[in-house]
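Slides due. Your pick:
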Amino acid sequence: MTTRPTAEPNDAVRAEPVGTGTGRARDPLALEVRLLGSLLGQVIAEQAGRELLDLVERVRRTTIRLRRGDDPSLRAGLVTELAALDPDRAEIVIRAFSLYFRLVNLAEERELVRTARRGERARTGTRAAPDSSLAAAADWLRRSGASEAAVAAAFSTLRITPVLTAHPTEARRRTVLIALRRVDRLLDSLADRDIALAEDRDTRRRLREEITLLWRTADLRATAVSPLDEVRTALAFFDETLFSVVPRLYREADAALDPDAESARRSGRRRTTARSGEATDAGQTGTRAPLATPFLRWESWIGGDRDGNPSVTAEISDRTLRIHADHVLRGYEAVAGRLSQTIAAATPPDRVPRTLVTRLARDAELLPDLDRQLRRRFPDEPYRQRFGFIAERLRRTRAHLTGQAAPLSGRYADAAELDVELAEIQEALATDGLGRVAWGEVADLRWQVTTFGFHLAALQVRQHSAAHRAAEAALDEGAPDRDAVPGVGAGEVVETLRTVASLQARFGPDAAGRYVISFTSEPEDVSRLLRLAAACGEPLPVLDVVPLFEDAATLEAAGSVLDTILSDPSYRDHLRGRGDRQEVMLGYSDSNKESGYLAANWLLHRAQAALAATARAHGIDLTLFHGRGGAIGRGGGPANRAILGLAAGAVEGRLKLTEQGEVIAANYADPGIALRHLEGLAAATLVASSPAHAASLTAAETAGGPILDELAVTSFAAYRDLVGGPGFVDFFRLATPIDEIATLRLGSRPAARGRASEAASAPSPAPTRSIADLRAIPWVFAWSQARIELPGWFGVGAAIDAYAAKHGETGIAALARLYPRWPFLTSLLDNAELALARADLGVGRQYAALAGDSGTASWATIETEYARTAAWLGRLTGRDRLLDDQPELRRRLGLRDPYVDSLSEMQVTLLARLRACEPGDPERERLLRLVQLTVNGIAAGLQRTG
C-alpha cells in the first residue's frame, strides 16, 4: 500500500485512463490499486494529519520488513510502539488499513470481471470456452457421447436454487457496501478510453469525496441488527445485480443449446443468411424463440430462520415477504414502463393481431380512465398501450400485496397471469414482424417473471427439532403459552405454521412452505411437524418438510432415517401430494466443528450416497440441500470443484446450496461476478449429472472408499484429541478473539444457541463456555482472525501419516494416483492446501502466546500437525510449495500478508491490554471497540470471516 499523497492531488495517476498505457501501467489492477492508495493517503492526511499518515506508513514498512525477515528484532520495537499508542491514534491506524483493504478488494473484484470478459472474448474466437461456462458444459456433454436431444433434456431438467441466509459473517455495514458500489462506478468512468480531461479530473474529485465519506463512516454498527435489516441488506443485491443478471444467464444457456452457434463461437466463423445476405452471428440468441427454459429459483432464510433466533417471529416473516414483493414488483413495473416507451412501433388498426385487440379491450373495461389516457397519447401504438396497462396493473398488485392499499380492481391474481399476457405480446410481435423485440427484452421480462414470481425468493422456515418436541408436549398438556425452548413459546411455533398458510394464500403456494428441521435425529421429527401443522386449523399450510442432518451420528444414519420416513404410509401420502419430491439438507458447519475437516467431509460424502440410494429405492426425486459456508472449514472453497466431487447419483440436475453472509456480497455485488458464479454452478451441475461423470465417479469411489474410511477414523481421533484435550477451551478463548467476536453486531442471531440475552447485553463479552455450545460460524471466524485456519486442515496430516505407517509406499502411491482422478479427493486436498496457505503460524504464534503456559501443549500439537499436513500434501500433489499451481493466487496472498500483519500485531497488543483490564475499568469499553475494529479490518484483509 502507498498511502502517502502525491505532491499535487490532481496529478495522482493522471498520465492515462485506467486500463491503458504501457509497461506496468497496462495492468489495470495495479493502476487502480495505486490510484486508490494514493487517494486514501490524501484523505488520511486531510482528515487525521500528516503525522498520523507517517505513523501508518511506518507501521506498514516495518511489517513488510518483518515479513521479509530483514531484522527479527524489529518486532519488539513495533510492539512497543503499538502498545504506546493512545486509543485515538490506534484507531487511526486500524481504520487506515481497514479502508485500504476494502478499496483493494473492490479493485480485485473489478479485475475478476475483466478476466471473465477476456474469457468471453476468447470464447468467441478460436480458443475453447472456459471450463465454468455453460457453452463448455454443453460441449463436454456432446463430446462425452450425448445427443443434441440429450443435451437439451439435461438443460430442461436443470434446477439451481441458491438460498440466501443471514448468518452473521458479513462484517461490513450495508452503508459501506453501497458506498463501494459508487466507487466502482466512478472507476468504470475512469476506465473509459475516451474520457475527456475535465471529466477525468471531476471523476477523481468525486472519488476523493467518496473515500472521504468512507473514512468518516463508522465501521461498527451502533445498534443491533434486526432481521428486517438483514432482509433489506440482501435485497440491495437483488436491486443492484440479480434482477438484471438472470436474463443474461439464460442467454448464455440459450446460446449453449444452439449447436450452430457453439460451433461458430469455437471457430470464430460467421455465416450469411440465405434470405437477406446479412452477416450475422450463427444462431444468435434473441432472433428466435429461446431454446433455454428458466432453471434458477431463489429462496431465503432471512426473516424465516428461527433456529436460535427468537427475534424472528410470525410478524417478521409476514413483513419479509411484503418487502420481497415490493422490490420485485417495482422491478417489473420499471421494465414495463420502459417497454411502454421503447416499443413505439406504429401499427395500423387492421394489422393489430386479434389477441392484442382482445386484451386491450379487456384492459379498457378494467381501467377505463387509463385506457382513455393511453389512447390519447399512443393512438396507433398498441404495444405502448399494452405495456402501459401492465405497468399500472403491476402497481396495483404491489399496493395490494404489500398492504399499502385496500384490494384494488385490475391487479394481477398471480405471476402466471402476467406471464400469459407477456406470451401473448410475444406472439403478436412475432406475427407483426418484430421477432427481435419479442425474443429480446420481452423474453428477458418473461424469464424474470418465471424466476422471481411475485415473491422474489421463497421464504424458508427453519426451527430446531427440540422446539417442535417441546411445543407438541406443551399443546398436549393444554399449555400453549409455555416456552417450547428458551425464548420460543409453543404458541409461536403454531403461529409460525399459520403464517406459512397465510403467506401462501396471499403470495401463492411457491412463496413459502419449505420447512427445515435442524438437528433432525429420528423419523418422528418429520411426522411431528406435520401433526403440529394439522393442529393449526384452516387453512392448513402446504409443507415441504426438509430434515437437516448436521452432526456425526445423524449423518451416519441419514440413509436409514430417510428410509424409515419414506416407508411411513401417511408420509408417503403427503409426499405424493408434493409430486413425490423430497428435499434433505446436509450441514457442513456443525459436522466439521464436531468431527474435524477430513472426517466431516467423508461423513457428508457417504451421507450423500446413502440418501441418493434410498431415494432411488423408493422412487423419489431427491434434492440435496448443501448448507455450505464461505470458509473452507464450513464447506467453502471453489463451488464448481465441490459440485463435481459430490457423490455419484447425488445431483441428478438439481443443486441447492446456501449463500451465507459475506458470500452474498462476494458473489453478487458485481453483475459480472454474479453471472460468472451462477453460470459456473449451472455448468458444474450439468457435468456432475451426466452418465459419463457418474461412471468415472463410481470407479474412483470404489477404489478410494476404503482408503477414506481409514483416513477419516484417524483424522477424527487426532482432531478430538486436540479439541477434547485438557485446557483446550481455555486455550481457544485466550488465543483467539472469540469472546470479543461475540460482542460484534454482525447479525440478529447470537453467537451461541441459547444466548440471546447475552447477545443483547453487548458490548460486554460473554465467555465461551464450551465448544459444543458455540455456533460453527464464530468458531471458524475466530481461527481465521488468529491466522491459524484450523478447521480447514487439522487432522489431514495425522491421517495420512498413520496410513503411510500401516500401508507403506504402496498405500501412498495408491492415494497419489487417486488424487487427480477423484474430484472429491482433489477438492478435499486442494481446499486443505488453500487453508494452509492462508494460515500464518508465525502470526498465530503471537496469538498463542496470549494463552500463556496453559496453551503450550495445544499450540505444539497445532504446529506439528501443520508441518505434517503441508509435507504430505506436497508429496501427494507433487508441488514443492503450497499453491505452486496457482501462482497468481499465491502472489496476491503474499502481497496482502504484510498489511494484514499490521492489524494482527495491533489486535494481539489490544487483546492483551483489554484482558489485563479490571472489571469496571473505564478503559475497557474503548479497548473492546478497538479490538472490534481490528476484527473488521482483518476480515477485510483476509476477505473472509466465518
